Amino acid sequence: MATCPNCRRQPADPKYKPFCSKRCADVDLQRWFTGGYVIPGPLDETPPDDDGEG
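User: That's the sequence. What structure does it adopt?
Assistant: Structure tokens below.
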């Protein structure tokens, strides 16, 4: 059986799969909310265009 990806100690609970508990599922969700996990992408270093000014 697979272990929890957060604590790596407990087997995954079918109710919270792939996590072992609600606590580990909430820890993972908090990491997403705070930017702990980032999906890399191209950096856009150009400033936005101002269409209204000329």
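The two ends are 64 Å apart (CA to CA).
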